[in-house]
Hints:
Blueprint lengths: L3 E5 L4 H12 L3 E5 L9 H11 L3 E4 L6 H4 L3 H22 L2 E7 L22 H16 L3 E6 L2 E2 L6 H12 L1 E5 L3 E2 L2 E2 H12 L5 E4 L2 E2 L2 E2 H11 L6 E5 L19 H5 L5 E3 H13 L1
Parallel strand pairs: 1-2, 1-3, 3-4, 4-5, 5-10, 6-9, 7-13, 11-14
Antiparallel strand pairs: 8-12
Helix pairs in contact: 1-7, 2-4, 4-5
Amino acid sequence: MSMKVLVTGAKGQLGTDLMNELARQGLEGIGVDVEEMDITDADACRRVISQAKADAVIHCAAYTAVDAAEDQVELCRKINGEGTRNVAVACREAGVKLMYISTDYVFDGKGTRPWEPDDKRAPLNVYGQTKYEGEIAIEELVDRYFIVRIAWVFGVAGKNFIKTMLRLGREKGAVSVVDDQVGSPTYTYDLARLLTDMIQTDRYGCYHATNEGECSWYEFAREIFRQAGMDEVKVTPVSSEAFAAKAKRPANSRMSKEKLTENGFKRLPDWQDALRRFLRAINE
Length: 284
């Protein structure tokens, strides 16, 4: 019997890679996006999830415009907080396990040690707060759940930092990038493999999953141009203060992945290796 997995946000950066990976591993993927299931509509969630007769739901759909969220608080909360609650209720009623994709933004970014999955959550911005509310809904409502926190996400199917850097490098020949925020990039292609492996187990709980290694955004940008053969682009390090952004970002987004190892999951490759494969994929 092949496992059947319903994926929300299936057209997004991660959702696209997940659908491909489910197929690659011989699982049946049912992809839904806002047209098929508006997560802010509780009845729609119940109907679609009960009719799908899936064994599991991987909930990727989210409001992710971090700066815009500061002005669109209600919309962001409706999708990330209440929407996730709707999905959780539907999963509980249908008796299916649920995986929720969350974020390093649930933490305040203080200190320098990597965040552990059970560390205290204290978000700095609206987006982080609403994702935290989504986590709480799942913890309260679902018995069989995975919460997987990711950071600095990039994939072939969506807009991301790498694509922005390449475009700005070509257009302007110079970029300024913050170097006082440190974390680990996450390649959706690699992440999709891990999530597909994970959903087939009952090793429930909260995990962190990013590519191995760490860097600042500035170091990330330099490596992007180096690997892309664009050494002529001038990259200037700046502080977060110098870079006017509406939403406050955590300075420390390092995340401990020890729990993956402890539970027998294969960790993601180094971020530089992931970047190399990503650049190859977008140039094919």
